[in-house]
Give the backbone structure.
Amino acid sequence: MKFVSLLVLVLLLLFGVVVFLYISNNDLEKYDNPYLENPIESNTSMNLISAIYLDYRFYDTIFEVIVFFVAAFGVNMVLEKLPDSKKTKPSKLISIHSEEVDLRMEIAGSFIFTLSVIFSIYIVFSGHIGPGGGFVGGVVAGTGLLVLSGSKDLNRIEENLNSLHIHEIEQSIMFFIPISGIVGLLLSNAGFSNFLPQTTPGTFFSGGNALLFNFLIGFKVFSGTWTILYHFVRHRGVI
């Protein structure tokens, strides 16, 4: 697992060096902002913010995702070496990683988590049509998981996520995003170009790459948010 994470980090750093060298060795001409002139016709996303950060300014978005990945990776590497929080003796109440909760809190935590997942899916897959997007959706789902960790066993949640290969999928996404830039370069002669078909504005598949990248970014932010929260809750009282 650590080897794969280090490999992904090295590939992302090499990717950043290549982009920097490409930009520094080319005279970039000044263009008018395309998102100020008929953005719906050129992108078909009804949400102008989505069109900007998933198409016109996608380079900025890529490096924001990389920064978040490196932050989660750093937290995981540093806090993994610390001892866990001390646990208290169990009692008649449900014992949850050194604290006790009653049945009402357990039910409420599961209910809030379910609502947060449903809402997260909605804003991720409609972010190119209305307010929302991958970053917001990922944080909402991760926050719901934090609430759930207050009423469920923390390590059991992590084990369930591992059984679903959540972290492996997250790392695969970090592989896929640079590859998508190469695909755009081959298909449209521009890295990270909007290479998927753009349908009628306002429809589910409008916006070209928007739907795909909102999902990928949302999943990445969800997994990274949980990684950070998991280690801070697991080692609370120690750090």
